[in-house]
């Protein structure tokens, strides 16, 4: 019999989070009864609440707190020329390579980057950086044979077969395509959008004119995006169907650097306000920029598998709107009647754009990883016991409060249900009467409910209840009339949003 391999801590932490997410109704593999579909996931009853809260918070922070930012909800399907103009038809691809023995497919660039990281981890920073530079030069020159040679030279082997029996490196376009139209001959190839940004760019003038928007202004959107990722690993970190929250901020040429700095700071603050610790967030400034970009940075979060991108902030010049002007032959200009230093109107120009783009699913994984807590304690008999709970910021917790009658008789359920009825219009609250009260507390801890409210015999006499706080397990006796303000104080989006001003 083979000995089980010892798991590394990072793997086991991720595994614990994945199992927890599945067991407690946050994330399920898609169409699981058919053994799932690679890198596609469904959100369960608590997952959808958490994700909706994250999206609502982003939406409010971006639109409600900024009078010069409005939202749109563009269609997933767009005219095929959109993707010619954006460069996705010709350039949105990853270099892939197959191992002939294991038949496994890899991203060639990732194999080399992993090797570089290995050198760096072993203390050989120079060798790691040198390898990264060589890779960057080869990719820039689209020298795929060179990339393959580098894999061979570095003696990189397939982790499954252990061999270096590699195919050629080929470019693989990440867009999913389908046919629009009932008759095959007349059908046009259209794409499932690989990013939400283009739905904003093509609506730039619609929004600017109908909303009488004055530069600088932004357009925000939340929506699905689809990428046929070559290697999809790490749970919901890299999915083939995912959700983006993007905002394009249109600015006067020459002011883009200042807005880039502004959004860089503002977006990082937002993640911190949500409860992600500053020490687990870092910048990754892009040294190699896309030819049209003049600055780009990622906000990275320290997942159980290391620091990885959750959001990108990009200064994209006027590239996107210029390209749409070229392909659509419709002017994408703005008339700026503000006066320059010579007292003349700035006049017509194609605005520059600073983009902020965060994945809702990656953010979900970041807050879930951060919330997952194991507290070592002791049980009633003094034996060691681990309490697992999800320490979400109360504003994003799926359920805000659970209301329990101590027992299922003597009018306690009725009293508890009356409290539920009173609070349910303001908060997502639930009623729970099954099992012993300790088990009920545990179940709420596992889904991250910040408050549990217990109704007992004393409640019938004086209208007081015990309220238990998730993070400390502290219990307090309070009057029923105080519940609304206690809960609302903690769970209000205001708690997060006020940290942004
Ligand atoms: P990566 O380098 O990890 O592939 P990217 O640089 O291609 O990401 P962008 O195109 O900048 O990502 O997309 C913006 C955001 O969308 C990312 O920061 C990420 O949060 C999210 N995102 C991108 N691809 C995926 C995916 N396959 N699954 C989940 N989220 C994604």
From TrEMBL:
<dbReference type="GO" id="GO:0005524">
    <property type="term" value="F:ATP binding"/>
</dbReference>
<dbReference type="GO" id="GO:0004820">
    <property type="term" value="F:glycine-tRNA ligase activity"/>
</dbReference>
<dbReference type="GO" id="GO:1990742">
    <property type="term" value="C:microvesicle"/>
</dbReference>
<comment type="similarity">
    <text>Belongs to the class-II aminoacyl-tRNA synthetase family.</text>
</comment>
<dbReference type="GO" id="GO:0006426">
    <property type="term" value="P:glycyl-tRNA aminoacylation"/>
</dbReference>
<feature type="domain" description="Aminoacyl-transfer RNA synthetases class-II family profile">
    <location>
        <begin position="129"/>
        <end position="394"/>
    </location>
</feature>
<feature type="binding site">
    <location>
        <begin position="359"/>
        <end position="362"/>
    </location>
    <ligand>
        <name>ATP</name>
    </ligand>
</feature>
<dbReference type="GO" id="GO:0004081">
    <property type="term" value="F:bis(5'-nucleosyl)-tetraphosphatase (asymmetrical) activity"/>
</dbReference>
<dbReference type="InterPro" id="IPR002314">
    <property type="entry name" value="aa-tRNA-synt_IIb"/>
</dbReference>
<dbReference type="InterPro" id="IPR022961">
    <property type="entry name" value="Gly_tRNA_ligase_bac"/>
</dbReference>
<dbReference type="Pfam" id="PF00587">
    <property type="entry name" value="tRNA-synt_2b"/>
</dbReference>
<keyword id="KW-0067">ATP-binding</keyword>
<feature type="binding site">
    <location>
        <position position="195"/>
    </location>
    <ligand>
        <name>substrate</name>
    </ligand>
</feature>
<dbReference type="InterPro" id="IPR004154">
    <property type="entry name" value="Anticodon-bd"/>
</dbReference>
<keyword id="KW-0436">Ligase</keyword>
<feature type="binding site">
    <location>
        <begin position="355"/>
        <end position="359"/>
    </location>
    <ligand>
        <name>substrate</name>
    </ligand>
</feature>
<dbReference type="GO" id="GO:0015966">
    <property type="term" value="P:diadenosine tetraphosphate biosynthetic process"/>
</dbReference>
<dbReference type="InterPro" id="IPR002315">
    <property type="entry name" value="tRNA-synt_gly"/>
</dbReference>
<dbReference type="Pfam" id="PF03129">
    <property type="entry name" value="HGTP_anticodon"/>
</dbReference>
<comment type="function">
    <text>Catalyzes the attachment of glycine to tRNA(Gly).</text>
</comment>
<feature type="binding site">
    <location>
        <position position="107"/>
    </location>
    <ligand>
        <name>substrate</name>
    </ligand>
</feature>
<comment type="subunit">
    <text>Homodimer.</text>
</comment>
<dbReference type="InterPro" id="IPR027031">
    <property type="entry name" value="Gly-tRNA_synthase/POLG2"/>
</dbReference>
<dbReference type="InterPro" id="IPR036621">
    <property type="entry name" value="Anticodon-bd_dom_sf"/>
</dbReference>
<dbReference type="InterPro" id="IPR033731">
    <property type="entry name" value="GlyRS-like_core"/>
</dbReference>
<dbReference type="GO" id="GO:0070062">
    <property type="term" value="C:extracellular exosome"/>
</dbReference>
<feature type="binding site">
    <location>
        <begin position="227"/>
        <end position="229"/>
    </location>
    <ligand>
        <name>ATP</name>
    </ligand>
</feature>
<feature type="binding site">
    <location>
        <begin position="242"/>
        <end position="246"/>
    </location>
    <ligand>
        <name>substrate</name>
    </ligand>
</feature>
<dbReference type="InterPro" id="IPR006195">
    <property type="entry name" value="aa-tRNA-synth_II"/>
</dbReference>
<protein>
    <recommendedName>
        <fullName>Glycine--tRNA ligase</fullName>
        <ecNumber>6.1.1.14</ecNumber>
    </recommendedName>
</protein>
<keyword id="KW-0963">Cytoplasm</keyword>
<feature type="binding site">
    <location>
        <begin position="237"/>
        <end position="242"/>
    </location>
    <ligand>
        <name>ATP</name>
    </ligand>
</feature>
<keyword id="KW-0648">Protein biosynthesis</keyword>
<keyword id="KW-0547">Nucleotide-binding</keyword>
<feature type="binding site">
    <location>
        <begin position="309"/>
        <end position="310"/>
    </location>
    <ligand>
        <name>ATP</name>
    </ligand>
</feature>
<dbReference type="InterPro" id="IPR045864">
    <property type="entry name" value="aa-tRNA-synth_II/BPL/LPL"/>
</dbReference>
<keyword id="KW-0030">Aminoacyl-tRNA synthetase</keyword>
<dbReference type="GO" id="GO:0005737">
    <property type="term" value="C:cytoplasm"/>
</dbReference>
């Amino acid at each position: 019999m083979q000995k089980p391999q010892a798991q590394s801590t990072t793997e086991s932490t991720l595994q614990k989070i994945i199992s927890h997410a599945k067991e407690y109704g946050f994330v399920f593999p898609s169409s699981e009864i058919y053994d799932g579909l690679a890198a596609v996931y469904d959100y369960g009853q608590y997952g959808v609440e958490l994700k909706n809260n994250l999206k609502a918070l982003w939406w409010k922070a971006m639109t409600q707190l900024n009078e010069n930012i409005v939202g749109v909800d563009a269609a997933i399907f767009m005219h095929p020329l959109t993707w010619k103009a954006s460069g996705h038809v010709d350039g949105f691809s990853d270099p892939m390579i197959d191992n002939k023995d294991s038949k496994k497919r890899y991203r060639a660039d990732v194999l080399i980057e992993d090797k570089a990281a290995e050198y760096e981890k072993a203390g050989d920073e120079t060798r790691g950086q040198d390898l990264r530079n060589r890779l960057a030069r080869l990719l820039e020159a689209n020298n795929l044979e060179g990339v393959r040679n580098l894999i061979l030279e570095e003696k990189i082997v397939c982790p499954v077969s252990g061999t270096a029996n590699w195919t050629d490196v080929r470019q693989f376009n990440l867009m999913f395509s389908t046919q629009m139209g009932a008759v095959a001959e007349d059908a046009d190839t259209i794409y499932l959008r690989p990013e939400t940004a283009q739905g904003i760019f093509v609506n730039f003038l619609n929004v600017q004119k109908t909303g009488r928007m004055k530069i600088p202004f932004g357009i925000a959107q939340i929506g699905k995006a689809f990428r046929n990722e070559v290697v999809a690993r790490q749970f919901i970190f890299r999915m083939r169907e995912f959700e983006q929250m993007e905002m394009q901020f249109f600015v006067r040429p020459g002011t883009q650097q200042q807005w880039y700095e502004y959004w860089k700071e503002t977006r990082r603050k937002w993640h911190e306000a949500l409860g992600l610790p500053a020490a687990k967030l870092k910048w990754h400034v892009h040294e190699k920029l896309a030819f049209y970009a003049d600055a780009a940075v990622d906000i990275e979060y320290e997942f159980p598998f290391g620091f990885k991108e959750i959001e990108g902030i990009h200064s994209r010049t006027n590239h996107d709107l210029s390209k749409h002007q070229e392909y659509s032959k419709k002017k994408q200009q703005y008339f700026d009647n503000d006066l320059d230093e010579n007292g003349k109107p700035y006049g017509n120009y194609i605005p520059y754009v600073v983009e902020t783009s965060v994945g809702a699913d990656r953010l979900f994984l970041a807050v879930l990883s951060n919330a997952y807590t194991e507290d070592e304690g002791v049980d009633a008999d003094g034996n060691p016991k681990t309490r697992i709970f999800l320490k979400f910021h109360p504003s994003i917790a799926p359920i805000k409060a659970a209301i329990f009658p101590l027992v299922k008789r003597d009018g306690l359920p009725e009293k508890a249900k009356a409290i539920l009825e009173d609070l349910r219009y303001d908060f997502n609250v639930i009623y729970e009467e099954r099992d012993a009260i300790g088990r009920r507390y545990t179940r709420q801890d596992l889904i991250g409910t910040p408050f549990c409210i217990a109704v007992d015999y004393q409640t019938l006499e004086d209208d007081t209840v015990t309220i238990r706080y998730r993070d400390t397990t502290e219990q307090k006796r309070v009057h029923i009339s105080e519940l609304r303000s206690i809960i609302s104080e903690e769970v209000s989006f205001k708690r997060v949003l006020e940290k942004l001003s």
